Amino acid sequence: MKKITFILILLMAIFSAWSHDFESGGIYYNITSNTAPYTVEVTRNSLGYTGNIIIPSTISYNNITYSVTSIGENAFYGDPIRSIIMPNSIVSIGDSAFMFCPIITAITIPNSVTSIGAYAFFYCGSLTAITIPNSVTSIGNYAFNSCDSLNSIVVVNGNTKYDSRNNCNAIIETSTNTLLIGCRNTVIPNSVTSIGVGAFFYCRSLTAITIPNSVTSIGDSAFYGCSGDSKSITIPYSVTIIGKYAFAGCSLTSITIPNSVTNIGDYAFFGCGLTSITIPNSVTSIGIGMFGRCSSLTSIIIPNSVTTIGASAFFYCRSLTSITIPNSVTSIGNSAFRDCGLTSVIIGDSVANIGENVFSDCQGLTSITIPNSVTSIGDQAFFLCRSLTSITFCRTNTTIGVNSFNSCSSNARIYVPCGSSSWYIAQLPAFFNFIEVFPYTYTLSSQDTLKGMVSSIASPTCSNSNWTINAIPNSGYTFSNWSDGNTQNPRTLTITQDTNLVAYFTASSQQWYKFSIISEDITKGTVQIVVQPDKDNPQATFIALPNSGYTFSRWSDGNTQNPRSITVTQDTVLVACFTSSSQDWYNFNVLSEDNVKGTVQIVVSPTQANPQATFIALPNTGYNFARWSDGNTQNPRSIMVTKDTILIAFFNQSIGIKDVDEVETIIKVYPNPAKSQITIIGLEQTDNIQIINTVGQIVKYYNNVSETITINIADLSQGLYFVKIGNIVRKLVVEK
To answer: Could you tell me which residues come within 8 angstroms of residue 244 by beta carbon, excluding any fewer than 6 positions away?
Structure first.
């Protein structure tokens, strides 16, 4: 409402000093030319006009006959006129001339008019139709916006500047194919390439809108304040630019932004009713106030393409409880997440500075980790975060601004790197609970938990930076090497930087490779192995056989030979893809690597009109979903289909666990969030310990442990796990 408020204040100042040259027949005039040809404009009546207005073409004053050639700025602003008749002598209608005229229902613009000013008929709520004569060559911004009853806009044939092609109830600038003004039942023609500034500004009765594939840009304030029944909108893949305030103040609850969009203006969705949104990975910046005051927003994914988050970008998103700022982001603007409902925040390790008030008044936030990349924290960055009880600094000397943590509990635990207590005590004099922790992260994982497990025998501390690790091969496998090439096992190394190690295993007795070929859809075509490969003769020959109405397209590795021969040197699954003989969009399918292990199901099939696909892998009894063929592990999963796509679901054999609610009293588990560890005491020498995820995979394994063991869990992703101690199970929730 800032623009409207500014206009009203300006008009009040103008009205207070309004003047006119003369009055005749109840209409006030200003002389615009005192020499031939003599002209006047209709000007404002300080008491206002009412009823039905008839403007003459000429008027006499002081024995001079003047031609009435224009309706002046603000001439009928806010007046309760019912109708107006303008003569053919009028050539211009000034800015805001009929703005806020509440009861005028119809108006005829004569063929003599060449220009209509900005806001000329703005907020004429009873105006139902408007006809633009072929003489008009200039129309100002917002000329007919906020006319809630406007159902019809017609441009007379022969106009050289504008048209309303295909009876679309809109004004289109012919030379640029830009839609300038629309009404609530506008159908945008396919020839339009741009939706102009304020095209549907404050169209509060807008019930539906379809943006055609021809549109490449949506202008500033194009749909500002559209609070009608329209709750969703799909932006086509042709659009690359969304302007400032484009959808601000709308009642939208959902919107799809395609990967074609590279630029979204400041405040584009400010104050919308959105509940969730996915920002495409084509966008590099989240602008100032882009989602500010979206109080219903509960979920948003910031892609790795984004490098900057603007000031107040998510201000007052009270329903937003968690946010992950990816490692690509280097800058977070002032007040970016101020007064949000956040309870969980992950800050990427590329952020150099946290600005002023970035997380202030996030009263549900209980813990925060400041990564090593952050050199400074702005004033009041976490002001009024009253629930904050754990603050972790990964850098030895982060500069902290004035009142950055004011109103936070002085009992909060402050975790700092080894040897940096004195620095942070000086920075945060109101706090007293400082705890030094090892400054580097160290993670350990197995190449494949079906082949072997890993364990951390002794973790580094401030006094001893040595880390002792062990790789534990499963039956039928042997340890091969660590990801840095070292082959020692067990192994002790000194941690002087963030370290991530993976254990690799090889089969004890090398079996030969699995080989199979699959059809993406047997209704489209089948496949046949002509020559089956084996260890002695690893060359395979196979063929794809399309059904009637289809042609062979390609194999899943991109090769288009058919028939085809290859030498098998690894486990291989190839899928034959087929194309309809009259194909006009992309092939999409999901398959199972082995129907004995599990099946797949497409929940939502993609189409050209809606290219988003949703699908799920369904493991059979005794198996768990492992991954898709592109490495992704989400299940169920949704993707945008932008090319021929085929995905294969892979499954692992499951490892069952017993569901036990309580641990025997002799065994106790103590979490240590500061060091990302758990300590287990009361163990017997024969106890084995497993940490198992929710799909049954063992992610950590320890055998023949002593009475007490400390386990590093820093490498575990956020989520629910089970700690299995012999036949006893304890739930473990990892929060980051």
So the answer is: 220, 221, 265, 266, 267, 268, 287
Residue 234 lies in a domain: no
Rounded Cα distance between 91 and 47, Å, is 26
Percent of the chain scoring above 90 in pLDDT: 58
Write down the number of H helices and E strands in the chain: 2, 60
Of 220, 227, 150, 217, the closest CA to residue 183 belongs to 150
Same-domain check for residues 461 and 552 = no
Q: Region 128-148: what's the mean pLDDT?
A: 93
Which residues lie below 8 Å from residue 727, measured CB to CB, with a gap of 6+?
Answer: 658, 660
Give dist(CA 229, CA 212) in Å, integer.
Answer: 20
Cα 413–chain centre separation: 33
pLDDT band at 659 (very low <50, low <70, confident <90, very high): very low
Residues 417 and 299 both lie in one domain:
yes
CATH of the domain at 692: 2.60.40.3080
Task: Look at the alpha carbons of 286, 288, 290, 293 in this order and tell me if their dihedral is positive or negative.
Answer: positive
How many structural domains is the chain composed of? 5
Return the amino acid letter for 144: F
pLDDT one-digit tens code per residue, 680-707: 877 766 677 888 776 556 778 777 676 7
Considering the domain boundaries, does residue 560 fall inside one? Answer: yes
Q: Choose one of 484, 507, 530: the last residue of a domain.
A: 507
DSSP-based three-state secondary structure for 573: strand
Structural domain that includes position 150? 19-163
Other beta carbons less than 10 A from residue 716's beta carbon: 19
Residues 563 and 418 occupy one common structural domain = no
92-93 and 64-71 strand pairing = parallel
Whether residue 625 is found in the same domain as residue 706: no
Q: Which of 437, 458, 486 is the last residue of a domain?
A: 437
Which residues lie closer than 8 Å to 509 by C-beta, 6 or more apart? Answer: 476
Q: Can you read off the two tokens belonging to residue 504?
A: 């690799």
Question: In this structure, are 372 and 459 located in the same domain?
Answer: no
| Mean pLDDT of all residues in 506-520 | 79
What pLDDT, on the 0 to 100 scale, is given for residue 685? Answer: 62
Is 482 found in the same domain as 357?
A: no
Distance, CA of 646 to CA of 643 (rounded, Å): 10
**Distance (Å, whole) CA 445 – CA 699:** 7
Pair 42, 64: CB distance under 8 Å: no
**Token pair recorded at residue 281:** 């990975």
Three-state SS for 673? helix
Q: Are residues 92 and 131 in the same domain?
A: yes
Max CA distance (Å), the chain: 119
Phi, psi (degrees; rounded to nearest 5) at 423: -60, -50
Q: Which two tokens stand for residue 497?
A: 């930087």
Q: What is the C-alpha separation between 614 and 610, in angstroms, rounded?
A: 11
Read off the CATH number of the domain in which 386 is found: 3.80.10.10
pLDDT over 50 at 17, yes or no: no
Rg, C-alpha atoms of the chain: 35
Residue 253: its pLDDT value, please?
85
In contact, 293 and 312? CB cutoff 8 Å: no
* Domain annotation covers residue 258: no
For 425, list phi and psi in degrees, rounded to 5. Answer: -60, -40
Contact 691, 698 (CB under 8 A): yes
Low-confidence winner among 316-320, 588-592, 675-679 (lowest mean pLDDT)? 675-679
In a domain, 248, yes or no: no
